[in-house]
Amino acid sequence: MIYLADTWLGDHILSIVIFLPIVGAAVLFSRTAWQPDAIRRFALGFSLLTLFFALLALVFYLAKAHEPGIAAGDWRLSEKADWLVGDAESVPLRIQYYIGVDGIGLPLMLLTALLTPLAIWGSFSGIQERHREYYALMLLLHGAMLGVFCARDLLLFYVFFEFTLIPLYFLIGIWGGSQRQKAADMFFIYTLSGSMLTFAGVLYLGWKASTIAFGEAGVREFTFDLDRLYLLAAQGHLSLDVQWWLFVAFFAGFAIKVPLFPLHTWLPLAHTEAPTAGSVILAAVLLKLGTYGFLRLSLPMLPLAAVELAPAIGWLSVAGIIYGALAAWVQSDVKKLVAYSSVSHLGFCLLGMFSLKLAGLTGSVLYMVNHGLSTGALFLIVGMIYERYHTREIDKLGGLARKMPVMAFFLVVFAFASVGLPGLNGFVSEFLVLLGTFTSSKMSNGFSGPLGIPFAAVAASGILLGAIYMLYMVASVLFGPVKEPEHGFDDSTGLTQDLTPREAGILAPLAIACLLLGVFPKPVINLMEPSLNTAVLARFAPAGSAMAGAAVPDEAFAVPTAPIGRTSHVLRNFGDDRGVLPGTKDDRLPRRATVPVLLTDSPAREDTGNPEAAMEVLR
Amino acid sequence: MDQHTLAILIPLLPLAGAVLVGLIGLPLLRSRSHWLVITPVAAALVLAWKLYQDVAATTTLACVAGKRMMFDSFRVYDWLLAESNTWLNVTFRVDPLTCIMLLAVLSVSLLVVIYSVGYMRDHHGHAERGYERFFACLGIFVFSMCTLVLAGNFLVLYAGWELVGLSSYLLIGFYYERPAAAAAAKKAFIVNRIGDFGFGLGILLIYFTFGTLEYSKVFQMIHAGATVGGGALEPARITTIALLLFCGAIGKSAQLPLHVWLPDAMEGPTPVSALIHAATMVTAGVYMVARCHVIFAASEYAMWIVATLGAATAFFAATIALTQFDMKRILAYSTLSQLGYMFLGLGVGAFDSAIFHLFTHAYFKALLFLGAGSVMHAMAGTIDIRRFGGLKRAMPITHGTFLIGGLALAGFPLLSGFWSKDEIIHAALESRMPWLAWVALLTAWLTAFYTFRMIFLAFYGKVKLPQGVEHAHESGAWMSAPLVLLSVGAIFAGYFGVAFHSGGAFGIFEPHGKLHELLGVLFAKPEKAVHGGLLGGHMLMYVSSAIAILGIFTAYFFYRRRPTIPMALALATGPVYRLLYNKYYVDEIYDLVFVRPLRKLGEICYDLDRYFINGILWIITLIPKSIGFGLRRWQQGAIQGYALGMVVGLLVVLWWMLVAA
């Protein structure tokens, strides 16, 4: 199969993965006469086909590793085409259809591709009306989510990012619980208002890119090409102040999406009211769009501000970990409990990310995947209970282990995965996050991260609180004397008392994935690590370190920045002399600010620090 | 097979058994499921014995040469990535300490698994509900415990540590339909997690300080006083690490103040109490401190805490055990107390003596628990010693073996418990904290008393049976055989750590035998701060023998000769008795001080969410709303108004174009 990687299929595999579900959605919308069974089968088939192509993409991705000129952390499977090209007087507009995956996007893409078919399969019994629209919207959502993880153009990213709102809005608003309208509105407006600010940041970056000539030809374009936008800060075109404001703009969109405390209040309502599959997708994938946005955009594009604001975000994350866990503990609705647990978990995810250490970043990306698996499964199980008893009240349920042993087995497995039991996936990511946070302030690769021991020490209480609320839920629902709601088990949906083979078949792959990722996460870590180094960490490594030299893209040339007024602790960490560029020690230029990013003095490159080129850009 | 293969196979065999039971136990095997666990555990025991002989052979050579040995761990596979190209691996380490622990764990496990075959059935021999689940969990436990013991670095230690917690949770909650069992399981896991919170931070701090989690590298760096950054190792840092690690031990080994979960854990089936909550898992804390002896020995303050806390728990738990009536709870408090002894030994630097006590305790305490289980089985689930008595004749094997276990626990001369406990007291006496030895001696008297109080009430006197039990009967062979084998262990296990020497105590015995010889390559000899004084030399052995016999006699006097005394005493010391009977109200205090406020805090958080944060959002949404409300006035729908607006607008535009521009 590997030889296919060099064929047309290999070149367009990502487009196929993204648009296959969307095509499926279009077909479904048009087939008004189909029976529910046919619709279900069709939707499941299309999502499974997408999973197949996503796996094929993984194979191609790995196969490409052996090609010459591809470094371990590079983007692969890229596709690039002009999308909107304008010919303005001075600055042409160039918005591209530019996609690709690296070791960060690929695991998340696979997570999406795995969970959506399961969520669709899980909806077979829960959804009893408007089948066609429901499954079409699910497929549409599927495509949009896949698009986010593949986008390499900021505007494309934003389009996919925002587009996910629309299907989910309808999924919650039409098939949701009793307060569905309120939940859908709140979800939509809350997240949209955040991402409006993000959009302002996106536009500013595009405009900023247009003011600077790129490449040898010196083109000025109004572009959202991420490759170029990364270089803005790297080459010092964004001062700390500008980065700070941009960071806040991006923060508004992503932090609400994550959701970071105290911007999380839309989540419990949206989760409780959403249909099961909606909750699953929301928790497993949509929240990750926020963390992925931070990782993909905020950190590498705005490194100075990221370091500056990391402690604040760190404390918010820690507060979220504790707050979410405590709030989860007092819930009377199982689904709400799981929803609040997401707030707690995602705090870990951001904490590890902003530790800016490889362990923390790896842990953070793994956390995204692991949380998707275990929390997605928990929502599925809650849905399965709900379909049988039409209640999610903890007080009304009890001793279900007796009635539903198979369900009990899976619930215990996923609860412990969520609690972070070694041997299951949650532990791996939680430990790495804590390790990264704990050692964040330590020097490695000449860079010391912004967080440190206090963050880790407080966050570690999350492992205790997590056990408290999760085991409370497990004990109340599964153990004790059998307690059912008055109407008891309801087989109106054609379900059996314990899980049907279909339901067990949905949960089993997730359980196996949890176990595999817990026992032997090495392949996945190996996939992520080089990309995290190249795409994120290298932006923070000071000039002169091996890492900074390794990650210099071709177009990069050293450009001195305007002096930065505010003293950030980055400056203190790097000292002045290390930040000054060799070869640009020029009297005409003001004292160089110390930017802990792609300032290159790699001996392998000859054009680095060319003063003429530098001055050219300055003009 | 070389050592590495053996070490990998030992935990994997029980795991494979457990997985198989999980897969085919319910549909195929049902009441034959136990074979899939007994066989691998037995095989693992054989392998462990082979491993032990292998290690013993090499260490004895080193021992003769008088050298300390360094044991390196070996990599099983890569697990986590810490920094570029630095993996935190799954590594195992094989040394005498590992081997001794493996032998203790696997031999007790095997006997308990065999016992369970008889115990987990009703009187007609039908397997209980969840029979296969029980054995699968036991298999997982044996796997986890072996992993914990074999671990070559702190990460794997932590993994094993948590996994035994999982098996403990699953097995305490085995009768999950009983609310008490479900609550006890939850409590055990959560209280353990409190300790693990510190333990985990300790491990992170180790990585932070030394840049590695491998035992041997960490220990070497501590010996050298180095850190990963190149700076010198500060005493405060090493003390912090030691105390954080000790938090884990406090949780797992149920020392003060985290002891509350262990008595409740007796809600689990009795074999589980014997194996996990007496013989093996709860001693993991002792093992861990002994394993990290380099860290602890480097901090005098930490050692002081370990020893003091150990002695305090030993005494405190023994006083509670005096007043309890539930046989299993008495034994549970006695376990706390004995674990306290072990920590006392660790804290005064007698690491080998602590491990020795761990070893002997595993046998006699497992024996006692299984004996209690046998009684409970015969009494149809009743375990309150007030409700039955005089079982001696009806249950001769149980009585005989229980008596042996009781004598060993009481420290009766020449039985296993006597040797190991004595060594600890001896070491304490010669340490800087000799007063702890006096606490330990007092506790020894209490131990002998409460043990024989239980024995006299249950087995002697008039025959008394609980309601619903027609006649007591001896348990079957599945249960009796392990009892007999364990009583052999309870008698002779002590001679593993005793040398024969003419002119020693009782004529020929001298402490510090084979076990100490093996462990000697790991541990430094404890320094002697003061001389034992009056109790120095062999004198202590005679004194503690006397104390044990005195304790037994006191119990005999109280419960056989003058049965009115206990009641009178309870009445006379009313408040004190109630304090002890209610276990110092620790559970109630925790509930009041920690659980309720935390729960309240959770409610406050949730209220904040609903009212405060959402309130602010509501206010924010008022802004566009009010703007819209303000603008609505202009949309009154009258055509004249719109016309006026148009004209005004047109005029403004015209003015701007003509004049302003």
Provide the succession of SSEs of chain B.
Answer: HHEEHHHHHHHHHHHHHHHHHEEHHHHHH
Tell how many strands the DSSP assignment of chain A holds.
5
Could you give the distance between the termini of chain B?
A: 96 Å
Report the structural category of chain B.
mainly alpha
Question: Major sheet of chain A: size, sense and barrel closure?
Answer: 3 strands, mixed
Query: Spans of chain B of 5+ residues with little confidence (pLDDT < 50)?
Result: none
Helicity of chain A, in percent? 55-70%
**Percent of residues in β-strands of chain A:** under 5%
* Chain pair with largest interface: A-B, 59 and 53 residues
Radius of gyration of chain A: 24 Å
Q: How many helical stretches of chain B? A: 25
Total tally of structural domains of chain A: 1
For the residues shown, what is the average pLDDT of chain A? 83
Oligomer: heterodimer
Strand segment tally of chain B: 4
List low-pLDDT spans of chain A.
548-619
Which structural class is indicated by helix and strand composition of chain A?
mainly alpha
Beta fraction of the residues of chain B? under 5%
Label the overall shape of chain B.
globular
Give, in spatial order, the strands making up the sheet with the most strands of chain B.
1-2
What does this structure look like?
- The complex is a heterodimer of chains A (619) and B (661).
- Chain A contains 24 helices and five strands.
- Chain A has one domain (2-538).
- In chain A, strand 4 and strand 5 (447-448) form a beta hairpin.
- Chain A has a three-stranded mixed sheet with strand order 1-2-3.
- Chain A is mainly alpha-helical and 619 residues long.
- The termini of chain A are far apart.
- Chain A is globular, with a radius of gyration of 24 Å.
- Helices cover 65% and strands 4% of the residues of chain A.
- In chain B, 55% of the residues are buried.
- Chain B is mainly alpha-helical.
- The mean pLDDT of chain B is 87.
- Chain B is globular.
- In chain B, helix 6 runs antiparallel to helix 8 and helix 17 (416-429) packs across helix 21.
- In chain B, 70% of the residues lie in helices and 4% in strands.
- The longest helix of chain B has 47 residues, at 586-632.
- In chain B, strands 1-2 form a two-stranded antiparallel sheet. Chain B has a two-stranded antiparallel ribbon with strand order 3-4.
- Classes of the chains: A mainly alpha (619), B mainly alpha (661).
